[in-house]
Write a structure and sequence with these properties.
alpha+beta, Threonyl-tRNA Synthetase, Chain A, domain 2, four-stranded antiparallel beta sheet, 4 helices, 4 strands, 45% helix
Length: 121
């Protein structure tokens, strides 16, 4: 691999922002991707709409926003795996995500088939 770790992380962030806008209809305010061993950890900030924030005022609304948002992302998992494979050359073997309804942040963790970070040492 001839690209730097920072370059790959930046490409992943840009591709996920593009995916969000096209698949979910809106993007986050900021995206930061980090390659750590055999994982790519992505933090997306500013993903909730004002209406979703107001829905999150009670537990029932909070759970419905979490469920809906996580369901939307999970429904696009094959595209997300393809994005990671195309950029890194690594297969995604598992995917985890959660959203904080308090901060409006989403965390995504892509577990890869190999230790990608070793390519940069």
């Amino acid at each position: 691999m001839d690209k730097s770790k920072g370059t790959l992380e930046s490409e992943i962030s840009k591709a996920l922002t593009h995916w969000e806008k096209h698949y979910l209809g809106r993007g986050s305010v900021s995206v930061k991707s980090d390659i750590l061993r055999d994982m790519i950890i992505v933090l997306l900030r500013g993903i909730l709409s004002p209406a979703e924030y107001s829905l999150c005022q009670d537990k029932e609304g909070l759970l419905s926003v979490k469920k809906a948002r996580n369901g939307l992302v999970e429904s696009g998992i094959e595209e997300l795996k393809e994005i990671v494979l195309t950029i890194t050359g690594q297969e995604v073997i598992s995917f985890y995500t959660d959203i904080s309804t308090r901060t409006g942040e989403r965390v995504m963790v892509f577990k890869l088939s190999n230790n990608l970070e070793n390519h940069f040492l």
